[in-house]
Amino acid sequence: MGDGKIEDNPKILSGPVLTNSPNAVLSKTLLGRYKDLPLPADRVLATYIWIDGTGESLRCKDRTLNFIPKQAKDKLTRLLEKMNKKYQTQVLEKLKWSHVQEHLPPYYFPEDLENVFEVRCKLRERENRDSFDENLKDLPIWNFDGSSTGQSDGHNSDTFLVPRAMYKDPFRRGNHVLVMCDTFKHNMEPTETNHRLKCQEAYDKCKDEEPWFGIEQEYILLDADLRPFGWPPGGCPPPQGPYYCGVGANKVYARDLIDSHYRCCLYAGVPISGTNAEVMPSQWEFQVGPSVGVSAADDLWVARYILHRLAEEYGVIVTFDPKPVQDWNGSGAHTNFSTKKMREENGIIEIEKAIDKLSKVHMKHIKVYDPRGGKDNERRLTGLHETASINDFSAGVASRASSIRIPRAVAEEKKGYLEDRRPASNCDPYAVTNALMRTCILNE
After folding, report:
1. Rounded CA gap, 223 and 128, in Å?
2. Burial class (CB in 10 A: 0-12, 13-18, 19+), 115
3. Separation of alpha carbons 203 and 140, rounded Å
4. Which domain of life does this protein belong to (predicted)?
5. Please, what is the Cα angle at 422 between 420 and 426, to 5 degrees?
6. Cα separation of 159 and 52, whole Å?
7. What confidence score (pLDDT) does residue 74 get?
8. Do the strands 177-184 and 44-51 form a parallel or antiparallel pair, or are they unpaired?
9. Residues 6+ apart with CB under 8 A from 204
10. H or E element, residue 199
11. 10 close to 233: Cβ distance less than 8 angstroms
């Protein structure tokens, strides 16, 4: 690609301005006023999102709902409700019930942190249910042309979308929602790229172990010519070194896009926990989690969707290819994993047991850690650029050249989590989390 010396490339010094893209300008001027049009109060726009036949690309389509679906409750709300339920159980065990009370259950609500309760009796309101899971079931099953997404043939192309997770829509806002779905064939058998079903089955079997996941998603921004965004025409920027967590127009590109993504994810309800510039200029990372079980993969897919949608408006392209540029660091989806026992005192024993189990099925995991059975990871896991060799399993404390890394703090505290550094950036997180739960918890 050439030397690409910084003094010969004023574009690096000035830094590209994303908001000058034609798409962004058009959105703000001609189309912006129409986005503010008031909609009927009983109409909600739902964007159904799914994984297509490639196993790595997303598709979406919109529909109108005539009801307002409830949003997922945040972690604090769920924690308080769990505490409240515990208090209810303690009080109810001491109550004597009458025949009349069978249809008029009491509800107890804590008024403050001193465990003072007020008893309120009310009829059960089935129309205004408080359960997010039950409201999710109200979302209609939909369908699409699977022959156009590589998921069916043209003679029997109807493929079904089943809602699985719901998020607030950061683009339309208000009551509008994003709906993560999985896909089923005409006979309601899962499509070949529907790995969520098995992931859910695994989680249902081991949910008492409380498997937590935190996924570090790396990606690269490209320009319209499919070159890394901000790179000099026909050349490369200076060698890696100043770009990781860098600051400055000659070190990082598109920070406004990355910050927009961060905020959109938090608004949507995706538990994004951080972001940073990566080793290669125009390469970035965001971290999702900790999330529990299958919801970790739901969260990551929706975060990817939001990133793609934002990139449309900024006029750039997001690639999750694990190794788009030779002799530079590739992109992974490092997966942090723990169970309840790992997080308890002396949990390091459980972590070491899990690593031993993983060592025995290394190639089995490699085959599901990218959508092409390991072929994409062959380009990335070379033993260079902070990777382990794809052919050899290894583990080490604070070692980014190992298959499995035990963070330094975990080794010192003797409890915590492990980091699986093998998943490729374009992996299906349903397949990755499913493999970790089945190997480390279910002993499959």
Report:
1. 48
2. exposed
3. 24
4. Eukaryota
5. 115
6. 11
7. 55
8. parallel
9. none
10. helix 196-206
11. no
* Other Cβ atoms closer than 10 A to 317: 17
Q: What is the distance, to the nearest Å, from the Cα of residue 299 to the centroid of all Cα atoms in its chain?
A: 3
Chunked in runs of 10, what are the mean pLDDT values of the chain (444 residues)? 38 43 58 81 92 96 88 59 71 57 44 36 32 64 94 89 93 92 93 96 95 96 92 87 93 95 95 95 95 94 98 94 91 96 96 97 96 94 91 93 94 96 97 98 94
Amino acid at 34: Y
DSSP strand pairing (142-145 vs 158-168) = antiparallel
Q: Residue 92 has what pLDDT?
A: 62
Structure tokens of 335?
A: 């997966």
300-to-19, 56, 297, 377, 430 alpha-carbon distances in Å: 26, 12, 5, 19, 10
- Phi and psi at 428, nearest 5°, equal -90, 110
Residue 433 · residue 335 · CB < 8 Å: yes
Q: What is the pLDDT of residue 381?
A: 94
For the CA atoms of 312, 317, 320, 326, the dihedral, rounded to the nearest 10 degrees, stands at: -170
Please give the Cα distance from 203 to 417 (Å, whole number). 18
Give the ranges where 29-185 is alpha helix by DSSP (H). Answer: 75-92, 132-138
Backbone angles phi, psi at 79, to 5 degrees: -65, -45
| List of residues 6+ apart from 74 with CB closer than 8 A | 269
Alpha-carbon span 335 to 215, nearest angstrom: 5
Spell out the domains of the chain, with CATH numbers in brackets: 41-70+129-193 (3.10.20.70), 75-121 (no CATH), 201-440 (3.30.590.10)
Whether 268 and 306 have beta carbons less than 8 Å apart is answered as: yes
Handedness of CA 234, 315, 216, 409 (dihedral sign): positive
- Amino acid identity of 111? E
Provide the β-strand partners of residue 184: 160, 190
Query: What tokens does 189 get?
Result: 């058998």
Nearest Cα neighbor of 272 from 299, 297, 251 is: 299
